[in-house]
User: Which sequence fits this backbone?
């Protein structure tokens, strides 16, 4: 075997689905220094690093306030509490996403109402959303209260139409940008849509820490004050032993904030641009042969995932096996819809009620993506897929 072929094979053998190891090697000096600074300070919960991160993130997304919390699920939970969502309220959530987006309704005593998706963007369908709202109003058992659109795989949802629907029916909009940080519609960034918004810093997210973390964004000062209290068991802002309301323990620790700060600088400086270059290379190679992601005009995705659609489950299985034989990782996001999860069994939901998401889960396949993937690695993946058609 020629040296070039051996070198290429070694690179393939080391390909990661999202290469956090290569990111760390690139940012090692800054990250290690930030971690050591926190250790030397002896301040590990909230503190200056968290304050600094909150200020920078709020400025970046265009919100007045950012409140850092323990994880993305807690961010959704606390955001619902801030909107005073509770028993008897309907929370409209997409049927095709990670379970936290819908199950968080139960944390506040509300009921999730699942909604089908757009077949090309994979985001919540505005048409299906309005029909779901009308159905809830017709039944009269629940009060429509809040819409939780998800910026799936990094692409912002259709907020122009969602906001119009929310205004028509007097509903809140809670943007779930767990996967969408960095995405935008024209000049408006993810985490700035709706009445309140959230994100996640899970390690594999567009901006991720080295553990769990999340954040809530709002323009309302009273809401921000309330969130800062209930993330710390309802404590008073002036006396930490004066707990005047019920909250949870969901504080971002200083180490994670310190790690996020240099990673955020890299994200702004080159990672977001780079991951879009990688995605564009995929699309250039695969378009016309396979169904590639649709990015509507004026939108920018942060590409938490690069997800293609195959003809059917049989072809997807074949493609996964081809990639596996060449040591190329791939993932199915997601293998089942929300309505197929056992936790929602009591809602008596059927596949025929969600024709698009029920179809998509059988055909979707996510490919390696990230700002540290090389164009050569993209070509290796594309070559393997195209050769198997």
Assistant:
């Amino acid at each position: 075997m020629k040296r070039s072929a051996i070198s290429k094979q070694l690179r393939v053998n080391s390909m990661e689905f999202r290469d956090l190891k290569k990111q760390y090697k690139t940012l090692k000096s800054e990250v290690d220094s930030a971690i050591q600074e926190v250790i030397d300070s002896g301040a590990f919960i909230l503190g200056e690093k968290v304050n600094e991160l909150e200020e920078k993130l709020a400025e970046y997304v265009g919100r007045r306030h950012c409140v850092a919390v323990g994880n993305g699920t807690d961010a959704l939970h606390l955001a619902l509490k801030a909107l005073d969502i509770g028993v008897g309220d309907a929370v409209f959530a997409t049927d095709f996403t990670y379970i936290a987006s819908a199950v968080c309704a139960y944390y506040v005593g509300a009921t999730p109402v699942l909604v089908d998706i757009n077949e090309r963007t994979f985001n919540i369908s505005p048409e299906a959303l309005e029909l779901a709202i009308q159905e809830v109003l017709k039944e009269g058992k629940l009060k429509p209260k809040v819409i939780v659109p998800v910026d799936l795989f990094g692409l912002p949802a259709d907020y122009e139409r969602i906001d119009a629907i929310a205004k028509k029916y007097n509903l809140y909009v809670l943007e779930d940008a767990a996967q969408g940080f960095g995405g935008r519609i024209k000049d408006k960034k993810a985490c700035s849509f709706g009445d309140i918004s959230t994100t996640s810093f899970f390690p594999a997210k567009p901006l991720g820490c080295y553990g769990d973390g999340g954040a809530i964004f709002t323009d309302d000062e009273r809401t921000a004050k309330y969130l800062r209290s209930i993330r710390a068991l309802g404590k008073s802002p002036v006396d930490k032993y004066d707990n005047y309301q019920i909250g949870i323990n969901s504080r971002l620790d200083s180490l994670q904030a310190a790690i996020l700060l240099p990673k955020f600088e890299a994200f702004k400086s080159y990672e977001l641009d780079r991951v879009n270059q990688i995605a564009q290379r995929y699309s250039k190679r695969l378009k016309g042969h396979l169904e590639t992601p649709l990015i509507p005009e004026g939108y920018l995705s942060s590409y938490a995932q690069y997800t293609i659609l195959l003809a059917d489950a049989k072809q997807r299985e074949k493609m996964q096996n081809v990639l596996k034989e060449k040591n190329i990782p791939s993932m199915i996001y997601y293998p089942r819809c929300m309505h197929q999860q056992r936790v929602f069994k009591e809602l008596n939901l059927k596949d025929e009620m969600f024709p698009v998401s029920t179809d998509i889960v059988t055909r979707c396949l996510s490919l390696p993506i990230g700002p540290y993937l090389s164009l050569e690695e993209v070509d290796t993946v594309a070559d393997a897929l195209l050769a198997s058609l």
Notes: The longest helix spans residues 254-286.
